[in-house]
Structure formats: C-alpha cells, structure tokens
C-alpha cells in the first residue's frame, strides 16, 4: 500500500470531492480532455454516478477549462509556427532552454517536493536566480546554434531546416521571440487559473450551482441532462466483464448459502404453529435496509442497552461502532440495478426516445421484479456507501440476495474508493489574493512546463478545432452501429471519479475510518438477516455456523481489513501466502480469502 509523504491537504467538508474534481479540470489538461471526450461526448454510453460527486458541475467546469486551455494553446501555436517556419530543427532546443539547473536535494527540499506545489512561496533572490539561469541558457543556446548553423556550408532545404541562411540571424531572432512569447503566454494562463481557483473554488466560495454555463450546442444540453439523471438514478449499465465500473478492484467478497429449514423449539420440535412464515427477497431487502437506516440514526449507543423489537443487546464493541457511524450521519442505502450494456438493445425498460443513452432509473415495481427473478446479467444490489473525508474516501458494500428453492443466497462485495490525486487538493492551500512571494513561485513553475506545453500546443489546438466535426461523425457511426448490431454495447467505459483516482492515501486515518465502516456494515447485515429469519420461524443454526467460520477465517475483518496470513481449513488443505500488490488508492491490500 502506498502512503503519501509530507503535508497534503485533505477533504473534510461535504462536497469537497466535487470541488477537487472541478479544480482538476483547470490544473490538469488531460483530466479535462478525458471528461469531455470520454464522458460528455460519448452520448450513446451510460453515465456512471459516483457517491458524493456532482457530475454536471464537474463537466461544466471541464468545458470551461478546455476553453481556457485552448486559448493558451492557440497563442503557443503561434510561437511554434514562428520557429517551424524559420528553422524547424531549432524546435529541438526548446527543452534545453527550460531545463533549470537544480541544487542537490536536501531533506527539506525533498519534503517540499512531496507536497502539492501550488501555494508554495519563493524569495526574490530565488526568482532572479531561476529567471537569470533560464535567460542565460536561452542566449547561450541561441548564439551557439546560430554560429554553428552559419558556419556550415549549407544551402537550400537543409540550410532552411537548420536556419543557416543569412548567417543564422533570422532563425536566432525568431527563436528568441518565440520562446519569450511562449513563456509569457504560460505565465498569463497560470495567473488566470490561480485567480479562478482563489475566487471560485475555495471551500468558502465554491457552489456547484454556479458552474460556468456550457456551450449552446443542443447535444451538450441533452448529455448534461442524462448525467443529472444518472447522478440521481438507480441503474448501472456496465461494459465488459466487471459490473463495478467506477470502482477499483473489490477488497473482498464472500458468499453465504443458507438452507431454509423450519426452526426447532427448546425441546427440539419443529415449529408447529403453521410452520415458518414464507417471505420474498424484497421482504428481506426491505428489512436489511431498515436496520441499516436505524444504525445510521443511532446516536445514543450505550453498552448493554436493550433495543426494541426483540433485537439483541449491543455489545460494547457494537455500541462503539454505532456511535461512530451515528456521528457521521450520512450513510446512503439504495437499490441499484446492474445490467450489461450488450443485453439491453431490445429491452424497453432501458430504451428512451429522447436520448441515445439508456435509462438511468427504473420504477419501484420493475426493481422488485428483478429482485424476484434475477436472470442473466440483470441483477439487483443493495448498495451501502458512506462518503468520508469530504467524499474523498467512500467505503461501499454491495449486497445481493436471492432464493433458489429452499435456499437463501447472500453475496457481499466490498469496495473502497480512495482519494483523488494530491495535486487536485492544492486549491485548499490558496487563501486571499496572490501574494508576491507566491507569484514568484508561479513564475518559476511556469519555466518548468513551458517547453512541454509549447511542443504539444499545435496538436492540442488542432484536435480542439476539429472536435465538433469529429463528434458528429462519431455519433453518426454509433447510430449506424446501433441499427445494425442487436448487441451494441451501451455500457459505461469509465467514470469521472475513476479518472482522478490517486495511487496513494493522504492520511493514515482515512483507511482506518473506511475499514470501520466496512466492518460495521458486514456485521450488521448478518445480524439483520438472522433477525429476519428468526422472526419468521426459519432455522439460523447454519447461518450462525457460517458466520463464525467466516469470522474465524478473517474474510470479515472485525475492526479493520487486516491482511490474513497463511491459513488452511479442512483435511488435505494447503495455504499460500500472497504478498499485497498496490493497485491504486482503492486497493490497499489483497482480497482477504483463504486458499484451500
């Protein structure tokens, strides 16, 4: 598991994760491009909601950021073309100009480097040193290149490539002007972004409803409506093998199979009062949902306090969990339908006339029907999630219930959605107007990335200029594919939240809090199922035995998701230890399963 070094701002207020993603659109060109091109522009694909994220606000800020980036890229393209027209091979010198010599890193330097960069301070002397070094490199490289080119006996096309004509003077002047203009352009852009972050994306100023207005294209308005519906919907249409689009690999998953047998009384006799009461999966789901809601609202947990309705007394550990969860008070328990995108082409429940993408919400009666008869890729899950740390950490549990004959099946899948990247949190280090020492740091930071921005500008500007035409052609091809392919894939390929996932956690207690929530939900899910079956006269002996086995084997980690060592259960069983492999913030360790 990777953990962050040094100081990093962390989310702590509701809605922080949406704000970080909106800031990411301005701080990271690639993120804004992927949000617009992979999520917004893909009109035929389903949208994937993310707990605690306002998808519409993030997309609208991404569109505004693209406009800002495109204005910078157009100006940088002018600098690029000036050098390309006078001496094309001089473009290779751009990287050398903006390579700032660095002192050997001290311990303090390494600590500073580990922090989010925006918001750092720089003295006037350091600024003069950095700017002077870059200017000196520019002059030296220009003189050396000009003298070298003019001394070579070149003419014609080769002379033009190297700028050797007229003693290299036009090439040198064009190079000096282009590099200076490019640096000024990047500084101007960074100042605009800094002002925007300080005035609109701090915790005190941010309001998702005040996101910039989108462009007037009709398809953009329609897609934003579809994203809003997905945010409030109950359907996930997935593409490919795994239904958990938008989530990292499952932390753990475990099944329970419970035979439905009549309970025995104290004398060992079967329940004779008409036998056990029958039930349906919707009945069980409703009971579990109600119990989890009760837990979320339990603020006065005291050790040993009896509860109403015949509930067992809370142990001290359970009471601690209840108080922990009640203090957070934002547990979400919702029905969610998962269906594969290639299987809904002729399913009227998911098709809409007003949009290409599938429906994001099914009515309650349709959800209940799916609970009663789950078939193929169409499955119901009871989703439980609790956004923590401003939505940066989201522990999620998916519960699936089914009855087959006289058997109850329960499957639990645990996920942990980790924080967004540290650099997107940099907005929390900004306060008030831009101070002079922070402005100097921004000037130096611009030196470090001007070269890369200059080289990439023509390609980015060209792609942006052809975006509308490319989108129209793309959608025409998609519509044709829908008409010709009965198994066209409507599934979502990615999610906005997944695009920003950090490879590391930012605070030790982020993982601790998430582990407590996952442990609590698992424990009380089993308790609710037992209560439900006991109240209806069904035998829970096998359920209790399986629960104890699971607890002993460590599949359910009470109080934390520990990495389980070698274990073997049963005769001739073997156990293999696998070292954990870090797969991102959402996957802090291996799936806790015994190998038999």
Automatic annotation (TrEMBL):
**Ranges for region Disordered:** 573-596
Specify the domain of life of the species encoding this protein. Answer: Bacteria
The residues that cross the membrane are: 78-101, 122-148, 160-184
Alphabetic keyword roster? Membrane, Transmembrane, Transmembrane helix
Protein name per UniProt: Uncharacterized protein
In which organism is this protein found?
Answer: Streptomyces griseoviridis
């Amino acid at each position: 598991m990777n953990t962050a070094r040094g100081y990093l701002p962390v989310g702590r207020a509701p809605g922080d994760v949406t704000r970080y993603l909106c800031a990411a659109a301005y701080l990271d060109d690639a993120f804004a491009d992927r949000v617009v091109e992979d999520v917004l522009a893909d009109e035929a694909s389903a949208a994937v909601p993310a707990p605690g994220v306002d998808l519409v606000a993030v997309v609208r800020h991404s569109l505004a950021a693209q406009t800002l980036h495109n204005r910078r890229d157009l100006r940088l393209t002018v600098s690029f073309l000036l050098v390309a027209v006078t001496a094309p091979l001089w473009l290779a010198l751009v990287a050398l100009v903006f390579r700032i010599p660095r002192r050997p890193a001290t311990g303090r330097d390494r600590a500073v480097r580990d922090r989010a960069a925006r918001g750092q301070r720089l003295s006037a002397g350091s600024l003069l040193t950095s700017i002077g070094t870059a200017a000196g490199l520019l002059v030296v490289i220009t003189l050396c290149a000009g003298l070298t080119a003019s001394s070579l006996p070149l003419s014609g096309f080769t002379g033009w490539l190297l700028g050797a004509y007229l003693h290299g003077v036009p090439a040198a002047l064009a190079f000096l002007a282009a590099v200076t203009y490019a640096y000024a352009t990047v500084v101007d852009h960074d100042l605009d972004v800094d002002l925007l972050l300080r005035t609109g994306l701090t915790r005190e100023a941010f309001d998702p409803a005040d996101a910039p207005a989108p462009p007037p294209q009709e398809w953009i308005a329609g897609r934003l409506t579809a994203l809003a519906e997905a945010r409030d919907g109950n359907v996930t249409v997935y593409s490919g093998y795994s239904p958990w689009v938008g989530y990292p690999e499952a932390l753990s998953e475990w099944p329970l199979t419970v035979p439905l047998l009549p309970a025995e009384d104290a004398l060992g006799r079967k329940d004779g009062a008409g036998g056990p009461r029958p039930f349906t999966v919707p009945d069980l789901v409703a009971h579990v949902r109600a119990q989890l809601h009760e837990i979320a609202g339990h603020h006065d947990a005291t050790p040993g306090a009896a509860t109403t309705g015949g509930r067992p007394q809370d142990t001290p550990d359970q009471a601690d969990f209840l108080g922990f969860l009640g203090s957070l008070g934002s547990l979400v328990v919702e029905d969610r339908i998962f269906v594969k995108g290639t299987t809904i082409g002729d399913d009227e429940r998911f098709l809409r006339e007003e949009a290409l993408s599938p429906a994001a919400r099914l009515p309650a009666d349709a959800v209940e029907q799916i609970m009663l008869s789950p078939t193929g890729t169409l499955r119901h899950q009871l989703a439980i999630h609790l956004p923590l740390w401003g939505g940066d950490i989201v522990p999620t549990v998916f519960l699936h219930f089914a009855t087959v004959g006289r058997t109850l099946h329960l499957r639990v899948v645990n996920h942990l959605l980790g924080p967004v990247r540290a650099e997107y949190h940099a907005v929390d280090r900004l306060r008030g107007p831009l101070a002079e020492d922070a402005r100097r740091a921004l000037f130096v930071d611009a030196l470090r990335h001007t070269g890369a921005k200059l080289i990439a500008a023509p390609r980015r500007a060209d792609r942006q200029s052809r975006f509308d035409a490319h989108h129209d052609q793309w959608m025409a091809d998609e519509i044709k594919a829908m008409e010709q392919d009965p198994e066209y894939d409507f599934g979502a390929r990615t999610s906005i939240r997944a695009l920003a996932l950090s490879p590391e956690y930012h605070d030790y207690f982020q993982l601790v809090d998430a582990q407590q929530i996952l442990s609590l939900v698992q424990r009380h899910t089993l308790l609710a199922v037992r209560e439900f079956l006991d109240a209806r006269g069904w035998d829970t002996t096998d359920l209790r035995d399986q629960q104890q086995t699971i607890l002993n084997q460590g599949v359910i980690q009470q109080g934390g998701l520990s990495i389980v060592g070698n274990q073997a259960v049963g005769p001739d069983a073997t156990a293999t230890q696998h070292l954990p492999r870090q797969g991102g913030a959402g996957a802090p360790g291996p799936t806790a399963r015994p190998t038999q």
